[in-house]
Each structure stands twice: as C-alpha cells, then as structure tokens.
TrEMBL record:
It comes from Frankliniella fusca. GO terms for molecular function: ATP binding; ATP hydrolysis activity; ATPase-coupled intramembrane lipid transporter activity; metal ion binding. Residues 445-461 have a biased composition (Polar residues). The chain crosses the membrane at residues 150-172, 178-199, 229-246, 266-286, 293-313, 333-356. This is Phospholipid-transporting ATPase IM. InterPro entries: ATPase_P-typ_TM_dom_sf, HAD-like_sf, HAD_sf, P_typ_ATPase, P_typ_ATPase_c. Residues 445-473 are annotated as: Disordered. The keyword Metal-binding applies.
Length: 473
C-alpha cells in the first residue's frame, strides 16, 4: 500500500508557537486500487490524475504491485519536482525505496530486503517521526549553516587578493604567504566548521517533536537558497574589503619606535592573514548555537594552532615570511588594527541579528527563547535548593532534641516518626506519634492514664509527662 499525503505548509508555518494540535478533519482523500491505477498512470491520464490528487489531503494506493509503487514515486519526482521519501518493510517495497530520494526500511518479520535497499533503517514505524522531525531537521539545519559559512570564509579570503591587485599593478603577486594559502582551508578553518556541521542544533529534540512546524523551513528551502548564497557572498565581500583597507590605512607609511618603516609587503601580508583567521573564528563562534566540549576545542584550538604553526614554519623550517608576524605583534599598531577591524566587522553582524530576532522573530527564535527561559528557571530553582536556609529546611527529621521523657523511650526519638498536634475533648492538647501501631497505641493509652494519676498525686511534679503516644500537658 502506498500512502501519499499532500501537506499545506504555508498555514503551518504561520501558526503561533504552540504544541502540536490535532489536524483539521476538513479535506478529501482518494483511495485507488491496483486495477484503477493501471488506467490512472496511463501517459494521457497521468497529468489529470496528478491534478486531482493534489487537491486532496491524502492519496491511498492499495493492492498495487511493486512496479506501480515505483511508478507513483517517479510520477511525483518528475511532475512535482518534490523530494520524495518511501518507507517499507518487505521485498515488494524495494523498487519503491530505490526510486525515492530517501529510502527508509523497517526491520521486521518480512525479512531484511527493504533494510538492505534503504538509506536509513528503523525498527518500528513510529520512529519515523523522530527520524524526520529531529535528525532530519538537524541535518538540514547543520548542512545549511555549514555551506553558508564555507562560502563566507572563502569569499573573505579570496577577495583580499582582488583588492591587492589594484596596488601591485595586477602583477599576480599574492598578498599572503604561499604556505598560508595552502593550509588556510586545511588547518586553520576546517575543524571549526566541521564541528558546526556535526554538533550544532538550534532547539532540543524534545522541542523539535513538540513543535513540528519547525520542519517547515526545510520544505520551503528557506535556510539555503539563492538569496542566502548572495547574502553570504556579500558578507564575504564586505569582510575582505575591511580586512584589506583598514590594515592598509593603519600601516601606510607607518614606522616603529626606532623609526624603521613597517609598511613592507611581508609584514602587511602577515597582519592581514592573522586578522583574517581571528575574524572568521569569531564569526563561527557567533554562528554556533549549541556549544559542546568539542566545539570549544576545535574553534579556539584552531586559533591557537595558527600561531603555533606560524612559529614552527617561520623559525623552525625557515619560511619566507620569517620574523614578520613577530615584529608586527611587538608594536601597538598591530593590536589597535586588530581590535578596530574585528569591531567594524562584528558590530554590524550582531546588530543585524538582534534586530531581526527582536522585530521579525522566526518560529525557531521563539522556541529557542522559550527553551532558554525554561533553562534559566530550572537553574534558579537549583540555586535556591543550594542555599543554607534550604538545606536547613531539608534537615533530617532524626535530628533534634527531646525533653521530659522517661528512661527507655530513646528509640521513639530516633525512629523518625513525625508528631502532629491534635485537640482533645477536655481542652488539652495531645501530640500523638504518627504511624504508631494499634497495639502500641493501646499500651500507650494505658500508660498515659497511669501517668496522669501519678501526676495528680504528686503536686511537686507538675511538669509534662511523655508517653509512647504523646505528651500530656
């Protein structure tokens, strides 16, 4: 059986932040058997059949052959230009699974043929929800972030040579050290973006299941398209412009404390390369939504690795730019240029993101804010439980003092039984021991009467007499 469901994504995307609601029963469904599907899939009727099916919420094809299942999937791929997913658990579903873009096999009682032919394997059909709404969505989110950052950092790196060409007479001279050009994408910027593509997530798995509308941007291809590519290219273009022109302006005709000229080509290239690595590292730190230990190691470790490798290459191997970066870092002009460049590049990014999150928040932004507030409340409640006053209130009931008890009743104090105050008919108050056994209470009442008579006959002993069942005042 083939189930084809058409989802209206515009209305779901505009829905407010609320947990999953039951679907409206409005709409139509079509059920087609194998004999009718033979005529519906005829080349002359295929388009008409598809137009009718797209008006329905669901289309169910039952009693169909494996070839017909594959033909339905191929029809959707060709006519609707849609990304298709096929799921099955038997050998008769293999052709359908192979025809779809994404094949999911269920390992069950009908063999392993569907699992072996699929891209993903699950044990039960109910796991499909988590596969799509959690892992599928995270995969799309991470891949889009990976691609946007990758284009950005390479535009920022490459266009620096374009700006330098106007100052070197278009002589094909590079602004960076040849070794830096070779290892920029290999050592300096590869591990942070790899950690971003593996571990990053905007919302937790629980919220991904609670708000299935978060899956809608993947349907609409909102996170990476031509517009997002152009924004990444423009961002890289602006970054390269600032990276080149700000150091060029600060080092133009600059001299050190001894009056020596600092504006040589090697020193300028080392300064621009260092600021470039710092800027792209800061940018991926801003892009990371979910920090783990591996993210910290790869992001900040790559920045540290740049300086270690520069020292090893220049002073151990004897590179062509030996001493340039060390000479630049000994001058205050380098640190001023670095802070100025990073500030100019990061402030617009932060302002842009704060503006859109505050004025035009997406569903993901609202869910992330709700998740963050829940984490803060949980952390505050844990901090309250750690205060000395809270620890005193949670002190064990076995701790305390006892007065006016007869010999042999110490075990009642250490038993942990709680006493509560009950009124008596004669106006006195009795503090009975809770959870006392019936036989123990009967013996206690007898001893209480005996103690009361003893107290009456002894005027000098007008204190409180404690029994097994309470204190008679």
């Amino acid at each position: 059986m083939v189930v084809w469901k058409e989802i209206t994504i515009e209305s779901e995307y505009q829905r407010d932040v609320s947990p999953e609601e039951p679907e409206s029963p409005a709409g139509y469904a079509i059920i087609v058997n194998g004999h009718s599907l033979v005529h519906a899939l005829h080349p002359q009727l295929e388009k008409l059949f598809l137009d009718v099916c797209t008006q329905c919420r669901s289309v169910i094809c039952c009693r169909v052959t494996p070839l017909q299942k594959a033909m339905v999937v191929e029809m959707l791929k060709k006519s609707r230009k849609a990304v298709t997913l096929a799921i099955g658990d038997g050998a008769n579903d293999v052709s359908m699974i192979k025809a779809a873009h994404i094949g999911v096999g269920i390992s069950g009682q009908e063999g392993m043929q569907a699992v072996l032919a699929s891209d993903y394997s699950i044990a039960q059909f109910r796991f499909l929800e988590r596969l799509l709404l959690v892992h599928g969505r995270w995969s799309y989110y991470r891949m889009c972030k990976f691609l946007r950052y990758f284009f950005y950092k390479n535009f920022a790196f490459t266009l620096c040579h374009f700006w330098f060409a106007f100052f070197c007479g278009f002589s094909a001279q590079t602004v960076f050290d040849p070794m830096f050009i070779s290892v920029y994408n290999l050592f300096y910027t590869s591990l942070p973006v790899l950690a971003l593509g593996i571990f990053d997530q905007d919302v937790s798995d629980r919220n991904s299941l609670a708000y299935p509308q978060l899956y809608t941007p993947g349907h609409r291809n909102l996170l990476f398209n031509k517009k997002e590519f152009m924004l990444s290219a423009i961002h890289g273009f602006f970054t390269s412009c600032v990276l080149f022109l700000v150091p060029y302006g600060t080092y133009h005709d600059a001299v050190d404390a001894n009056g020596l000229v600092l504006s040589d080509h090697m020193l300028f290239g080392s300064v621009v390369a260092t600021i470039l690595v710092i800027v792209v590292t800061a940018q991926i730190a801003l892009d990371t939504s979910y920090w783990t230990v591996f993210n910290h190691i790869m992001v900040w470790g790559s920045l540290l690795w740049y300086f270690i490798l520069q020292y090893f290459y220049n002073y151990v191997i004897g590179g062509s730019y030996v001493g340039s970066l060390s000479k630049a870092m000994n001058e205050g002009n380098f640190w001023l240029t670095t802070v100025l460049t990073v500030t100019i590049l990061m402030i617009p990014v932060l302002a842009w993101r704060f503006y859109f999150v505050d004025v035009f928040p997406t569903l993901s932004d609202r869910v992330r804010l709700k998740q963050r507030l829940a984490q803060l409340r949980s952390r505050q409640s844990q901090d309250v439980l750690r205060t000395p006053s809270a620890r005193r209130t949670r002190r064990s009931i076995r701790s305390g003092y006892a007065f006016a008890h007869q010999e042999g009743f110490g075990r009642l104090i250490t038993s942990g039984k709680i006493m509560r105050k009950l009124p008596r008919p004669n106006g006195d108050f009795l503090f009975p021991m809770a959870f006392a056994s019936p036989s123990h209470a009967a013996n206690a009442s007898t001893r209480q009467a005996h103690c009361s008579s003893s107290n009456t006959s002894s005027p000098q002993d007008n204190g409180a007499a404690m029994t097994d069942s309470g204190i008679n005042l």
